[in-house]
Specification:
6-stranded mixed sheet, 16 helices, 22 strands, binds nicotinamide-adenine-dinucleotide
Length: about 525
């Protein structure tokens, strides 16, 4: 496969280049501080979604390579976990600066592999950078607790300690942000880290690894392997790996949660979504329609927090024609083109899947108010583009409602009252995010209290919490018991040791053995 790969490289990643200097742009593994060429016989071609040209090929790491990566993590853990917390903090202080300095370069690498617009790709890096910045307060975040004098001369205190080797399995849609939710949090706590980026967008993770090395992370503290199911199974099964962070689809997330947990590992699994935006008739119309259109179609709908479902309540139903007009005005183009509002989908398969879900809606009785299936983008005729699409008259039984579409498609339902809207949202199995648009405080309060969704926006369409909070998707969108980043992220990547110590004066020594339970 690899020898058949002869495509000219359309884009080079500049001074942080991780590719070989030959004409074959292979993606390396990152093992024990070195970017190494895989010896694998199995390689995957990775395409630019706007052109479908091959831009790199990525290996499925061999068992020996994956073992070498995890062994490197295990060796590095011995010294990294004993490295002073101030020294670990310094690495991440330097790291956040390097990411800031290279944000445009990272964004370019994202756009060429993932397809999103350059501005959106910068947002992807920025939201990950914020997590790195937050790790720099680790000296406060890792504080334990103390309780002096629990009895005479006796004190109890706790330490938060790292777990060992941790692993992350990432999706394609946020090539920077999601890996940055994972390894910086794990490593700053004193763990070492094995990352498996999405095989569809490997380059950004490699650039981030190089920057981390430049920031002073010792060899072996981060290792990167590439691959698909075999790499995932390896991570779920290897006894040295103590915890797994997963973000991606429900199919993979449920599987990894079960397989990893069975093997005694901590697993946090952030999965799919169907996020509802409830539009009340008293909402600020201009603001609401713009928010809705931006959150439904931005990143071509390939965000787990995309507002992919609108519920128009009462008189807000009459806003539908204006919603369609605004969606129609969005510009679909290659992500690196100035003025592009949304780029292509990740693959031809994703495009076909989205188009068939639109068709299923039509066949089940939905009204196709805007059809983006036949869009042609000048100069990018081979790209995986779908334009903004709106399906009206959607009912909860339709496949376009029951499945996560993960494309630029907004499905619109109607409700007579707020109670009916809440009931619809709560019957949906997913619980990642939701938003209500209203100018009435009591309506907003009722919604936030009664809706069973982990992340709620009030006039905020994509309520992804900042890193001092945690990413709290719930129900069918999450498996595990501690969420990503923030205080919960620190809990996930640490274990507690509780020490009970007695220091008493010599003359207060026990006179005989204490054989009863201490009270
Ligand atoms: P995906 O599940 O296809 O891939 C994610 C990772 O799992 C990849 O590294 C992949 O190699 C691996 N994988 C894929 N299929 C697998 C399988 N059957 N068994 C084992 N491993 C497998 O997800 P994706 O298409 O890359 O990402 C899109 C999905 O991720 C959407 O469902 C989206 O909602 C979800 N997502 C969720 C969040 C969140 O925080 N809740 C954030 C981003 C994306």
């Amino acid at each position: 496969l690899r020898s058949a790969f002869r495509t000219k490289v359309p884009f080079r990643v500049g001074r942080l280049c991780c590719y070989s200097s030959s004409s074959v742009p292979t993606t390396k593994l990152f093992i024990d501080g070195k970017f190494v060429e895989s010896k694998s016989s199995e390689w995957l071609d990775i395409h630019n979604p706007a052109t479908n040209e091959v831009i790199t090929c990525v290996p499925k790491a061999t068992q020996e390579e994956m073992l070498a990566a995890v062994d490197s993590c295990s060796r590095a853990f011995r010294s990294w976990s004993e490295t002073s917390i101030l020294a670990r903090q310094q690495v991440f202080l330097r790291y956040q600066q390097l990411i800031k300095d290279n944000i445009k370069e990272l964004a370019k690498a994202i756009t060429v592999e993932q397809g999103k617009t350059l501005a959106d790709a910068e947002g992807d890096v920025f939201r990950g950078l914020q997590v790195v910045e937050h790790t720099c307060s680790i000296t406060s975040l890792m504080l334990g607790e103390t309780l002096p004098s629990i009895t005479k001369d006796m004190d109890t205190y706790t330490y938060r300690l790292p777990l060992g080797v941790c692993a992350g399995i990432a999706p394609f849609n946020f090539p920077a942000m999601i890996p940055l939710w994972m390894f910086p949090m794990g490593m700053v706590c004193g763990n070492t880290y094995l990352l498996k980026p999405s095989e569809r967008v490997p380059t950004c993770a490699m650039l981030l690894a190089k920057m981390l090395q430049d920031a002073g992370a010792p060899d072996g503290t981060l290792n990167i392997i590439h691959g698909q199911h075999d790499a995932v199974n390896f991570i779920c099964d290897h006894p040295a790996i103590k915890a797994i962070s997963f973000v991606g689809s429900n199919q993979a997330g449920e599987y990894i949660y079960e397989r990893g947990s069975k093997n005694g590992k901590r697993v946090q699994s952030n999965m799919g979504a169907k996020n509802h935006g409830v539009v009340m008739p008293d909402a600020n119309k201009e603001n609401t329609l713009n928010q809705l259109v931006g959150a439904a179609f931005g990143a071509a709908g390939q965000r787990c927090m995309a507002l992919s479902t609108a519920i128009l309540v009462g008189e807000a139903r009459s806003w539908l024609p204006e919603l369609v007009e605004r969606a129609k005005a969005l510009r679909v183009d290659a992500g690196d083109q100035p003025g592009a509002d949304l780029g292509p989908l990740i693959s031809p398969q994703a495009r076909n899947r989205v188009c068939s879900l639109i068709q299923s809606g039509v066949e089940e009785g939905a009204k196709l108010l805007l059809d983006g299936r036949n869009i042609k983008v000048k100069g990018y005729e081979n790209g995986n583009f779908v334009g903004p699409t709106i399906l009206g008259n959607v009912t909860p039984q339709m496949k376009c409602y029951t499945e996560e579409i993960f494309g630029p498609v907004l499905v619109v339902l109607e409700a007579d009252s707020l109670d009916n809207a809440i009931s619809l949202v709560n019957k949906n199995p997913y619980g990642n995010g939701t938003a209500i648009f209203t100018t009435n405080g009591a309506t907003a309060r009722k919604y936030t209290h009664e809706v069973d969704v982990g992340q709620v926006g009030v006039n905020v369409p994509i309520p992804v919490p900042l890193p001092m909070f945690s990413f709290t998707g719930s129900r069918g969108s999450f498996r595990g018991d501690t969420n990503f980043y923030g205080k919960q992220g620190i809990q996930f990547y640490t274990q507690i040791k509780t020490v009970t110590a007695q220091w008493k004066a010599e003359d207060a020594s026990l006179k005989s053995p204490a054989v009863t339970m201490p009270t």
